[in-house]
Amino acid sequence: MKLKIFITCAVFAVTSVSCKKWIDVKPSDRLSEDMLFATRDGYLKALNGVYVELTNNSIYGQNMSATVLDVLAQYYYMVSSTHPYYNYTMFTYTADNTKLSFDNMWKKSYELIANCNVLIEKCGEQNALLPAPYFGIVKGEALALRALLHFDMLRLFGPIWSEEKKSLPAIPYKTTSVTEVTPLLSSAQVMEQVLADLTAARDLLREADPVLTEGVRNAANPAGTNELFFRQYRLNYYAVRALMARAYSWMKEKNAAFQEAKAILEEVQSPSKPVFPYVTNAAATSADKPDRMFSTEVMFALYNSNRINIYNNVFSAAIQPGARLSFNAGNADMARVNEMYNDENDYRRRIWENVTLDNATLLTNQKYKDFVDAPGRYMIPLIRLSELLLIAAECSGTLEEGTAYLNALRSARNCVSVSPAGEPDLKAAITAEFRREMIGEGQMFFYYKRNAIQTIPNNAALTGTKTMVLENYVVPLPDSEISQRGK
């Protein structure tokens, strides 16, 4: 029978200007909805509400950034079956805790997709309440957010992209706020919709986004509101195009991915005034205010004033060794760190510090530690400049060109250049750089899956690798979604 899905239209949560309080507006409540969209401010609050909910722990606030997806990518040493993340590192998708986490990822993502759809529909083709540049900003970002959420659901629950499997049913692509059963689309159909939404978003933002003329504007507006400021914390024009490069890469359209990545890099890395400049040595090595996020390079991030909870709940030395995410068994062993970083001067290596607590010294991941007034203090990166460099390195036409992009990143990280002997060596070097670059950001598992990599780090040893079963890259659709379908 035809597979269908029924998605309940979720509560449309909207923040106040301070992002401290919430107003719940149900889309079925037409009077309240009409009141919300009666002013420009209402549209902006609705859009901001989606961004705030992206920081929910069930998705990018934790599980799809620093924890679940990174555990799937085998970043952490883990041998005890009592560890709260053990079932994830072993790909035990039938366990109660893993099923619940993935179900919550699915529900929250489609809830926010429903909210984006309401916003897109209310914008229409033109809107007197949204004069330029607001129409392009609001509708463009809503379209891009819809694409981002669908794309990540496909990357998680869909098959590894291949000519054989891209036509198989994968996930639904919701483009209306109507509560109706929606058929599963194939990966190819989903990606066609993703690219259509991103293309429309790009075209709208090209005419509206101040990032093109004023840069990221990461300072308060001295002359009014901040609606068009802090563009790193919004899916801005350049971030949308970077997401397109990521999408082409997923679809194995290497030339399209390379051309997009190359074009963006040329635009945002202008020697005279780069939009996303490389982190400076002073910022990366600061003792009291280190820039662990390399924040100037982040093209799109979420703003989470409670980001410290990631560190306190997952990585802190105060957590019992059997419950924290670590590179060892709860001691000062640096073997896994030494294997991961091949240059002692690498800025990225600095996230690892030995912390002494209660007469015990423990190696601790401090990427998300809170440093008062440090750059990117509340930032959860979702798209960064380095990914474009690595896409360009991977998809370039020659070994020399690919190596040049790879070494551009290594130079920005204070590492010596490398000279891969051939394409396999270049690919291995790119994989190693991606792993160093993306820890804590939820992208490594998708990289492994996209490339169908079968040799991955071994969770049960401090160093070395294990064999990945390709089927483990595909997370089963949640029970809550399957239960809505006829047989």
Polypeptide structure, described:
The protein is built from 18 helices and ten strands. The strands form five sheets. Strands 1-2 form a two-stranded antiparallel sheet. A two-stranded antiparallel ribbon has the order 3-4. It has a two-stranded antiparallel sheet with strand order 5-8. The N terminus is likely disordered. The chain is mainly alpha-helical. The radius of gyration is 22 Å and the shape is globular.
Q: Structural class, judged by helices and strands? A: mainly alpha
Rg on CA atoms, Å: 22 Å
Q: What is the 3D form?
A: globular
Strand percent estimate: 5-15%
**Helical content (DSSP H or I, runs of 4+):** 40-55%
The end-to-end distance, rounded to whole angstroms, is: 6 Å
Major sheet details: 2 strands, antiparallel
Overall pLDDT score: 93
**Count of helix runs:** 18
Give the topology string: H per helix, E per strand.
EEHHHHHHEEHHHHHEHHEEEHHHHEEH
Number of DSSP-assigned strands: 10
* Largest sheet strand order: 1-2
Can you tell me the residue ranges where pLDDT is under 50 for at least 5 consecutive residues?
Answer: 1-30
